[in-house]
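Good morning C.,

I know you're traveling, so I'll keep this short. The sequence:
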Amino acid sequence: MAQQGRLNAILELVTTRGTVSIQEIVDELNVSAATARRDLNSLSDERLVTRTHGGGMALGSGYELPLQYKIARNADEKLAIAKAAVALIGLGATVGINGGTTTTEVARELGRSEHLISSGEEPGVTVVTNALNIAFELSVRQHVKIVATGGVARRQSYELVGPLVGNTIKELSFDFAILGVDGLSAGFGATTIHEGEAEVSRQIAQAAAQVIVVADASKLGVSTFARICDLSAIDILVTTNTVSADFRAALEDASVTVIVAD
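The tokens, ready to paste straight into the viewer:
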């Protein structure tokens, strides 16, 4: 396994268990103790874990991993969700997209979807985003008109936040908002870890005729720090696993359509 894959796997262990020992890493990843120590030291140097005698521990429940360490999680699910979400977007649509690993996959699917390639000079799809990585990736797609908001960049997520974002969004309207979230629950709705990103996502949703939330099963039934919107503000949830009966009832009460991607 390459180092990046090992680092992702170790972070997954730490996130799940809270603490992890050198021996647990050796057993789980089939690596030497020396390699486990080096990888833990690398993560500690990046301030992603706290190094302990004989292992490592999480920095805290509210700590946010950088995007590059989250991108590999549930990759197949994210790709399936992206395909299902983009199938809802018609030629000529205007789409607002926030940042995140799942919305990054949605953006890539928008960029390669043949049904969004126009025959004339008009763009096949217009994308407005506060995510620098999404704007960069889509800027080379001839059929995509890409609009990046202003704002201050967050290193953790590549998202632009702050009042400059709102100044851009308030002048625009979207056919669709496609939102990635860190949590989606009956009691607290759509949430994310950072309050600035929550505000931007809320503004994108408010500017859209339809709001689509894209979330894999790990986000369902979870509440994180900052609310984006209530369930009632969401039109469609695209996910991959069967939603629990209780949560599905809450979604139905809020008139949210659930699409389970294959």
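Safe travels,
E.
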